Amino acid sequence: MKKLGLLILAALMITSCGGNKAAKASKTTVKLVTDATGIDDKSFNAAAWRGILDFYGEADAKSRGTLYDVVTCATQDMYIPTLKQLADEEPDLIIATGFTFADAMGEVAAEYPNQKFAIIDVDWVAAPNVMQFMFHEEEGSYLVGVAAALQAKEEGVSNPKFGFIGGVPGATITKFEIGYIQGIKSVFPNAEVVDYYANDWGKPELAKTQAKSWFDQGVYAIFSAAGGTGNGTIAQAKEMQLKGKKVWAIGVDSDQYADGIYTDGKSAVLTSMIKSVETATKLALEAVDGGKFEGKVVTLALKDNGVSYSAANDELAASVKEELKKVQADIISGKVKVMGTYKEALEAGIAPEGLGAKDN
């Protein structure tokens, strides 16, 4: 009887082990496709990658190359062949980061109707096999604009100037800029705001040069929505702070506080407009894994925790943080309405003429 019990126990253990292996073998597989900046951009792509790692519960990325992986396209002419190659490999899901992939994904999705795709910052790829994610970036950007303006008041800066550096112009980046300007103008209605577009996501030297010029001209804070290019703004702000000049960089997508550290306990990144790109990649994976994938547009706002801001910097005044909580509540309730297009902001007399922002 004892031997029989042991045999039954052994059989159960074998069945259990076999079941676990089968479950793991059926786990959702995904390939992430990024532009040339890759997942080391400390911003947008890095956030997308975090969402994938979070889905698998693997901070150490131990299943990279089996359950999930990332492919970086050096140039835009690689987008279509890369997406096709990945579709031929038949992963459960292919995710592309950013609106520059839109045309390529639209073409490839039509050729591979049985392949599931997801794309972030796009809502115009109308295909039943493409899940699209959009964000109300203007809401989070309004908050960091308020933060920068209130901090300037707190520091006694009179007539502060503000800058915005964008990557490739388009409707998505316009939401960052226009929201930021509205936040600033809610505190300083006549504030001067200047902008510059690098037309690239991976050239920090361009942002660094522009940031130096602006800081030298008295610009107080610069918000960059430019992927890896924006790291140049942070680098320049660090240099200026080390020289004793009180200027600020504002991070984007991820909390870039740590990237701005220039001495013990001091960061040149006042705050960051956090865009939860990781939420999008994780939601897409959960939809596939749960058999609920749909070719639809998912929009994430402040109320959905899709966007937020960082309060990690201790130099961000306590009074500013308290006011930001109130402003956040007002946006969520609808008391404060944030415009997301340059056209609206121009018509309202909030944004100046001649900006590099584009609504399409």
Features:
360 residues; alpha/beta; globular; disordered N terminus
Could you write a compact summary of the structure shown?
The protein has 360 residues and is of the alpha/beta class. It has helices at 2-25, 44-56, 79-89, 102-111, 137-154, 171-185, 204-216, 231-242, 277-289, 318-333, 342-347; strands spanning 30-34, 68-72, 93-97, 117-120, 130-135, 161-166, 192-197, 219-225, 248-253, 261-263, 266-267, 269-275, 297-300, 307-309. Helix 2 runs parallel beside helix 9, helix 5 packs parallel to helix 6 (171-185) and helix 7 (204-216) packs across helix 8 (231-242).
In words, what does this structure look like?
By secondary structure, the protein is an alpha/beta fold. The protein has 11 helices and 14 strands. Strands 2-1-3-4-5-13 form a 6-stranded parallel β-sheet, sandwiched between helices. Strands 7-6-8-9-12-14 form a 6-stranded mixed β-sheet, sandwiched between helices. A hairpin with a 2-residue loop joins strand 10 and strand 11 (266-267). Helix 5 (137-154) packs antiparallel against helix 10. The longest helix is centred in the first third of the chain and has 24 residues, at 2-25. The model is unreliable at 1-26 (pLDDT under 50).
